[in-house]
C-alpha cells in the first residue's frame, strides 16, 4: 500500500511520543508491563512501552518489511540470527521472532518483550508516523537497534531514522557483488574483536552520501583499493560498520549483509553476534571512542612575558613523569628581541638557552626548572647559516620519583670549535629537585659524547626512550646538509670543510663507525657510565676488514633525522620517524622523491639512508672525481659504502624495509621493477599503497603507542579502543598525516604496512587556532594526551608555541553495568 512521505520534525515526533517515553522511563526502572496513555493531540491512544525485559527472557525482533521487493537475504538473515541466538554461552543466548507487520511498533504488549530490534528491511517507507514514534519511544527508553545493509534505505524521508542508521547510501554506487578487504580497526568491540585484522569477503558495498566518520563510532572500514567503488566513492575513509548511543538506546549498523550468502559466513555471524550482544544489553561496549565531540583540547601555557621564556622556549620535546608532571624542553632559539649571532669570529656565535620547563597538572602552573647554554641559536637562512643543534631530547630515569634523574641530549656551547666548525653532542644525566622542580646543573654526569659538524645545517635528531629492560635509546640525525644532491640521496662527497664532509651521509648514517644518523641503545649505570646490551647491530669488535670499524652503541643505522622515537614497553617494539630529502618528484636517474618515513623496529638493523628508502627503493651511487655523474644503483640487500669519507665497514648489513613512507604524490608510492629489482620511478606508473596520507611540506613527528591502563586511567583517559594503536603525525597540519594506525603483529618489524589508519585531525585539532605545528606528543599515566605545538616560523619561540592537553569526555561504555540484561554477562 502506498503511503505519503512522513518527513517530520524532531519537535513533532517528541510530541507524538512524549507520554510514551514517560511511561517507558518508569518501566525501565520497575520492569512493569506496558501502559496506555492518552495521545496529547487527539483521542487516540499512545502506547508506552516497557523497558526491554532481560533476565531469562532476552528476545530479539527481526523486522523485515519492505516497500520494494523483499531481498533474498531476508530468509537467510532470519535463520542466521535464530542460530546465533541459540548458540554460544548460555548467558549470551536469546530468542528470535520475525515479522513484517509494522503494527508491532504500536503494540506495547508485544514490542515490550524485545531487548533489540533488527531491521532486515528492504528500501522504502515502511513505518507510518505513529509506528515510527513507537520505535523512537522504544529507543529513548533504552532499546537496542541493529540495521543490516538495506536498512540504510528504509524510511528515506525521516531525519530521525537517518540519525538512527547513521548514513544513507549515495546515488549511483556499485550494485554488483564484489570481493573486498575490510579493515577491522576496533579490536575491543564484541562485534569485531574476534575478526581478522584484514577481512576479505564478497558483498554489495554502499557508498555513503555523507560520510558518518566522527559522528558515529566506526568499527570497520572497507578498503576501496580492493574493489571498484564506482561513482560517489568515499576514499580511504570508507566506514562499513559502526555504532553509537542514540536517543537513549544503542544503535549498530552494518553495510554488509547484502547477499544471502553473507549470512552463512562464520565471521559475518560473529560480527552480528557481537552487535546483538551489545544492542540487547547482554554486554557492555564502547561506541563513543571515535566520535569527535567526545574530545576536548585545551591550551595549558600562556604566551611568554616580553623578553622572557617563562612559559615555554622553542618547543622541542616532552616527557610525562609517573606523577603526572610534564617536563618539556626548548631547543635554544630565542624570541625576536634577542639577536642571533652568525659570525664565526664572535665567541658568542650560536649561543642559545636550552630551557627545561615543568608543568604541574595539580596546580596548573609552569615553572622554569633550568637552562643549559647550548649551541643552538644560529638562526635561519641557508644551510651554511642556520643550525638545528641545541637541547634536543629529554627522558626521565625509570626511578625518577625516587632519584630525580633527568637525561638531556644537547650540544654544549662550551665545546664548539670556531676554527674547525666542530662540536660535541652530549647525553648527560642531571638531578631535578622533586620538591622545588629545580634542575641542579652542577649534578651533570656525561654518559656519552661524540663529534658533530656545525659548519652546515642539518639533522640533529634528538629523541630518547626507554625499553622495559631499562635500556636507553638515543636518536641521532645524519648531521648532513640537505643540499648538493638535488634533493635525492645525500651522498655527495663534495664539498668538505677542513677535511670534514657535510654533504655525504655515507660519512654518518651509512657509516658503521659513526654515531650520527643512528638510533643508539645503551644501558645507563648508577655511577653515570653505561654498558652495551646484547643484541645491538655491532659488538664494536667485528673482525672484518681489519677491526675497529664499528661502534657497539649502534642499534639502528641508516636513518636521516629521527627527531622522535618511542618504545612500547608492552612489546619493546621501537617506533621511529625521520624526515626525507627534498626532491618533490621521483627521478629515473637518481631514484625516489623525498620519503618521510615511519617504521616499527623489532631488532637491530640497517634502515637504508642514504642508499635506499621506503620499501627498499634504491638510489644511485655517486663518487669522485665527478659526483654529478650517476653510477650504479645501490643493492638494498647488500649495500656497500664506498665513500672516500667512510672509516667504517664497506660491506653493510642488508636494508630492512620500512612501514610507512610518503611523498608529495601520496602515501606509500611504489613502482614496477625491472629484472634487477630497480623501480621505474615514473610517476605515471606509481601505485599508492597507503592512500590515507600524503605529503607536501612534510616533517614526520613520530608519536606514542597508546596503552590503556584501567588501574591508573583518570576520568579524562582516552578509552581502551585506542590501546595498541600507533600515533603518527607530521609537523604540518595540511594534508600530512595525523593518524592512529594499527600494525599486523605478524609483519611488524619486517616492513609490513599498517592494516588500518584513522584520522585524528578533528580530535587533535588543526588550523590557525589549533595545534598547527605538532612537535611532540605523549600520553600521561592518567590516559590524557599532551601535545607540543611549535608555534609559527622556525628557530625561535613564538606566541603560538604552547603545551596542550587532549582529554576524553565520552564517559564509560554502555549500557551502564546495572542495566545489563543479565548481570552475570558483565564484562
Overall geometry = globular
- Helix-strand makeup class: mainly beta
- Average pLDDT works out at 92
Alpha-carbon Rg, integer: 30 Å
CATH homologous superfamily caption of the domain at 10-14 and 59-165 and 177-287 = Class I glutamine amidotransferase (GATase) domain
Query: Ends: how far apart?
Result: 46 Å
What is the CATH class designation of the domain at 10-14 and 59-165 and 177-287?
Alpha Beta
Structure description:
This protein has 827 residues and is mainly beta. Among the domains are: 10-14 and 59-165 and 177-287, Class I glutamine amidotransferase (GATase) domain (Rossmann fold), CATH 3.40.50; 304-457. It is 9% helix and 29% strand. The chain contains seven helices and 44 strands. It has a nine-stranded mixed β-sheet, sandwiched between helices. Strands 21, 22, 25, 26, 27 and 31 form a six-stranded mixed β-sheet that branches. A five-stranded antiparallel β-sheet has the order 28-29-30-34-35, with no helix packed on it. Helix 1 packs across helix 4 (129-140) and helix 2 packs across helix 6 (266-279). It is globular. The chain starts with 9 loop residues before the first helix and ends in a 19-residue tail after the last strand.
Quick overview of this protein structure:
This protein is mainly β. The protein contains seven helices and 44 strands.
Strands, helices and their partners?
Layout lengths: L9 H21 L4 E4 L6 E4 L10 E5 L9 H14 L8 E5 L8 H4 L4 E4 L9 H12 L3 E5 L10 H7 L12 E6 L14 E6 L13 E7 L15 E8 L2 E6 L11 H14 L15 E5 L15 E6 L5 E5 L20 E10 L4 E11 L15 E6 L3 H4 L1 E6 L11 E12 L4 E16 L7 E6 L5 E5 L19 E2 L2 E2 L16 E7 L5 E2 L22 E4 L6 E5 L4 E6 L17 E6 L3 E2 L5 E2 L3 E2 L41 E4 L2 E2 L1 E2 L16 E2 L11 E6 L20 E5 L7 E5 L13 E4 L14 E6 L5 E5 L12 E7 L19
Helix pairs in contact: 1-4, 2-6
Amino acid at each position: 500500500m502506498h503511503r505519503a512521505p512522513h518527513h517530520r520534525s524532531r519537535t513533532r515526533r517528541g510530541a507524538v511520543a512524549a507520554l510514551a517515553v514517560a511511561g517507558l522511563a518508569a518501566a525501565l526502572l520497575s520492569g512493569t508491563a506496558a501502559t496506555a496513555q492518552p495521545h496529547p493531540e487527539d483521542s487516540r491512544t499512545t502506547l508506552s512501552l516497557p523497558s526491554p525485559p532481560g533476565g531469562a527472557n532476552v528476545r530479539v525482533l527481526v523486522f523485515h518489511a519492505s516497500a520494494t521487493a523483499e531481498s533474498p537475504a531476508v530468509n537467510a538473515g532470519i535463520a542466521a540470527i535464530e542460530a546465533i541466538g541459540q548458540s554460544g554461552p548460555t548467558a549470551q543466548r536469546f530468542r528470535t521472532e520475525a515479522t513484517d507487520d509494522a503494527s508491532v511498533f504500536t503494540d506495547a504488549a508485544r514490542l515490550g518483550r524485545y531487548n533489540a530490534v533488527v531491521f532486515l528491511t528492504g528500501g522504502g517507507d515502511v513505518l507510518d508516523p505513529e509506528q515510527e514514534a513507537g520505535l523512537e519511544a522504544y529507543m529513548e527508553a533504552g532499546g537496542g537497534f541493529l540495521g543490516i545493509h538495506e536498512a540504510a534505505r528504509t524510511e528515506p524521508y525521516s531525519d530521525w531514522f537517518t540519525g538512527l542508521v547513521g548514513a544513507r547510501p549515495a546515488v549511483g554506487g556499485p550494485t554488483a557483488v564484489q570481493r573486498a578487504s575490510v579493515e577491522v580497526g576496533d579490536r575491543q568491540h564484541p562485534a569485531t574483536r574476534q575478526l581478522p585484522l584484514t577481512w576479505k569477503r564478497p558483498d554489495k558495498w554502499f557508498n555513503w552520501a555523507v560520510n558518518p566518520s566522527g559522528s558515529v563510532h566506526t568499527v570497520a572500514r572497507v578498503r576501496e583499493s580492493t574493489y571498484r567503488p564506482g561513482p560517489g566513492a568515499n576514499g580511504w575513509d570508507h566506514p562499513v560498520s559502526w555504532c553509537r548511543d542514540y536517543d537513549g538506546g544503542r544503535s549498530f549498523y552494518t553495510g554488509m549483509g547484502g547477499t544471502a550468502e553473507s549470512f552463512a559466513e562464520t565471521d559475518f555471524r560473529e560480527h552480528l553476534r557481537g552487535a546483538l550482544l551489545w544492542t540487547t544489553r547482554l554486554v557492555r561496549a564502547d561506541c563513543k571512542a571515535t566520535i569527535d565531540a567526545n574530545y576536548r583540547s585545551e591550551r595549558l601555557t600562556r604566551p611568554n612575558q616580553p623578553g622572557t621564556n617563562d612559559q615555554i622556549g622553542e618547543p622541542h620535546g616532552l616527557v610525562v613523569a609517573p606523577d603526572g608532571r610534564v617536563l618539556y624542553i626548548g631547543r635554544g632559539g630565542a624570541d625576536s628581541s634577542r639577536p642571533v649571532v652568525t659570525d664565526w669570529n664572535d665567541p658568542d656565535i650560536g649561543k642559545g638557552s636550552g630551557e627545561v620547563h615543568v608543568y604541574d597538572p595539580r596546580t596548573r602552573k609552569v615553572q622554569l626548572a633550568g637552562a643549559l647554554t647550548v649551541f643552538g641559536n644560529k638562526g635561519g637562512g641557508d644551510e651554511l647559516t642556520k643550525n638545528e643543534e641545541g637541547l634536543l631530547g629529554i627522558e626521565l630515569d625509570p626511578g625518577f620519583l625516587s632519584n630525580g634523574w633527568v637525561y638531556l641530549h644537547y650540544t654544549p656551547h662550551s665545546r664548539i670549535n670556531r676554527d674547525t666548525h666542530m662540536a660535541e653532542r652530549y647525553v648527560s644525566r642531571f638531578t631535578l629537585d622533586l620538591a622545588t622542580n629545580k634542575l641542579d646543573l652542577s649534578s651533570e654526569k656525561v654518559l656519552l659524547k661524540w663529534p658533530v659538524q656545525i659548519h652546515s645545517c642539518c639533522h640533529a635528531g634528538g629523541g630518547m626512550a626507554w625499553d622495559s629492560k631499562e635500556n636507553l635509546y638515543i636518536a641521532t640525525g645524519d648531521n648532513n646538509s640537505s643540499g648538493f644532491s638535488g634533493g635525492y640521496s645525500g651522498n655527495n662527497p663534495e664539498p668538505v670543510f677542513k677535511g670534514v664532509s657535510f654533504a655525504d651521509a655515507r660519512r654518518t648514517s651509512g657509516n658503521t663507525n659513526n654515531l650520527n644518523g643512528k638510533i643508539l641503545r645503551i644501558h645507563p649505570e648508577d655511577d653515570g657510565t653505561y654498558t652495551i646490551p646484547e643484541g645491538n647491530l655491532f659488538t664494536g669488535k667485528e673482525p672484518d676488514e681489519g677491526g675497529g670499524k664499528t661502534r657497539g652503541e649502534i642499534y639502528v643505522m641508516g636513518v636521516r633525522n629521527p627527531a622522535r622515537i618511542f618504545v612500547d614497553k608492552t612489546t619493546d617494539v621501537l617506533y621511529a620517524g625521520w624526515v626525507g630529502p627534498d626532491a618533490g618528484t621521483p627521478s629515473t636517474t637518481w631514484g625516489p622523491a623525498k620519503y618521510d618515513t615511519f617504521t616499527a623496529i623489532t631488532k637491530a638493523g640497517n634502515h637504508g639512508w642514504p642508499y635506499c628508502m621506503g620499501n627498499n627503493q634504491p638510489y644511485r651511487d655517486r663518487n669522485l672525481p665527478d659526483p654529478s655523474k650517476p653510477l650504479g644503483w645501490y643493492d638494498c640487500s647488500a649495500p656497500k659504502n664506498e665513500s672516500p669519507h667512510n672509516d667504517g665497514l664497506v660491506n653493510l648489513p642488508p636494508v630492512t624495509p620500512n612501514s610507512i613512507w610518503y611523498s608529495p604524490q601520496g602515501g606509500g608510492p611504489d613502482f614496477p621493477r625491472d629484472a634487477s629489482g630497480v623501480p621505474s620511478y615514473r610517476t605515471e606508473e606509481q601505485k599508492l599503497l597507503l592512500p590515507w596520507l600524503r605529503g607536501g611540506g612534510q616533517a614526520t613527528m613520530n608519536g606514542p603507542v597508546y596503552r590503556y591502563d584501567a588501574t591508573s586511567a583518570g576520568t579524562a583517559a582516552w578509552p581502551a579502543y585506542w590501546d595498541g594503536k600507533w600515533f603518527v603525525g607530521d609537523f604540518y597540519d595540511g594534508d600530512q598525516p595525523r593518524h592512529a594506525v594499527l600494525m599486523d603483529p605478524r609483519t611488524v618489524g619486517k616492513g609490513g604496512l599498517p592494516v588500518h589508519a584513522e584520522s585524528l585531525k578533528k580530535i587533535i585539532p588543526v588550523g590557525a587556532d589549533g595545534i598547527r605545528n605538532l612537535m611532540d606528543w605523549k600520553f600521561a599515566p592518567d590516559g590524557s594526551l599532551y601535545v607540543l605545538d611549535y608555534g609559527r616560523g622556525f628557530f625561535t619561540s613564538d606566541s603560538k608555541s604552547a603545551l596542550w592537553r587532549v582529554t576524553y569526555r565520552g564517559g564509560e561504555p554502555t549500557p551502564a553495568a546495572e542495566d545489563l540484561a543479565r548481570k552475570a554477562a558483565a564484562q
